[in-house]
Amino acid sequence: MKSASTQLASHLEGETTTLATCWKVTRKDGVIFGFTDFDQNLMIDDVTYEARTGYTRTAIQTISDLSVDNLDIESAFDSEAITAQDLRDGVWDNAEVLIFLVNWDDLSEGKIVLKRGMIGQVELKDNLYRAELRGLTQLFSQNIGELYTADCRADLGDERCGVDLEALTVSGAVTEASRRYGFTDSSRAEEDDYWKGGLITWVSGANEGRKMEIRSFASGVFTLFLPMPSDIAVGDAYTVQPGCDKSFETCCSRYSNGINFRGEPYVPGTDAVLSYPDGK
Questions:
Q1: Which of 38, 84, 201, 242 is the most buried (most CB within 10 A)?
Q2: CA–CA separation, 266 and 174 (whole Å)
């Protein structure tokens, strides 16, 4: 049940209402934005809620079985606060969202909180964007502790791994571009898949400052897991660091780091658990 002040509850029971929906978005960098579907800006608790009339949203639902609540909102880029470039760069990822109702004719009546959550998947198409709002139960679906795994639970180069990634990072430049999905650097002579799973960081060009994982590498050709936000051009400079498939064999043979392996390579797998005597 949603709580409301006596005045606002009385207003809701009236024959006519003057309600507006407000969205308070707090990004991970601490910057706060406010939006409302009312046709004028509203000032609530020292936050200006910008009038947004060109958006649609799905129904707000709360599920009793603790599964993740989802709500989608679709809108055009009609505000300077939200840009396509910021969405591509992940500036709004996991931002906290508070949705509530107010009486725009008398803001002193307080508000009714409809939903709290965080921004999840964002899709861009032409001049529109669709953002998914995930409920607070999303946090319960994430692993907090660690499980026994045959693969390493550390990330290459982190404190537990201990591998010096800086010493393994090299620089290069694009000699042939494949738009946003990949490129060629003819100076790279490493063996096939040497950079597979690695991370590339662009230091010049339209994607400067952005990073992307590498899907495959062969004969100087890099293929990325996802397309870059902007086209890759000949001459764009980058740095690249190798990846790790998190297997014990790779940890020992490639990085000589078996002592820091954070996994159980000999733990019985599913086949061993489901095996049974065959009578032979």
A1: 242
A2: 42
**Predicted model pTM:** 0.58
CA 257 to chain CA mean position, Å: 31
Could you check whether 6-141 and 165-260 share the same CATH topology? no
Q: What is the pLDDT of residues 237-262, one digit of tens each?
A: 999 999 999 999 999 999 999 999 99
Distances from the Cα of 227 to the Cα of 82, 178, 179, 271, angstroms: 21, 10, 9, 37
Q: Which fold has domain 165-260?
A: Thrombin, subunit H (2.40.10)
42-44 and 70-76 beta bridge pairing: unpaired
Looking at domain 6-141, its CATH architecture is: Roll (2.30)
34: burial class by Cβ within 10 Å (0-12, 13-18, 19+)? buried
Are 112 and 3 within 8 A, CB to CB?
yes
